[in-house]
Amino acid sequence: MEVLIKLSTNYEVQLINLCKSYEENSVLDNINLNILENKITVISGPSGCGKTTLLNIISGIEKEDSGQVILKDNNISYIFQEDRLIPHLTVYENIAFVLKSTINKDEMNKVITKYLEMVKLIEFKDKLPSKLSGGMKRRVAIARAFAYKSRLLLMDEPFKGLDDKLKTEIIEEFLKLYEKEKRTVVLVTHDKEEAKLLGNVIYSLHMR
Amino acid sequence: MKNSITKELRRVTRKIIILMFWMLVWELCSLFINNSLLLPSPVEVAKVLFFLTGKIYFWKSVFNSVTTVILGLFLSIGIGILIGVAAGLISFIEELLEPLMVVIKATPVMSIIILALVWFKSSNVVIFTAILICFPIIYTNVLQGIKAVDKQLIQMANIYKVKNKYIIKDIYLPSIKHYIVSGILMCLGLGWKVSVASEILSTPRYSIGLNLLNAKSTLETAELFAWTIVVVLLSFIFELMFKYYVKKRDSI
Question: On the CB side of B213, how many CA atoms lie within 13 Å of its CA?
Answer without folding.
Answer: 16
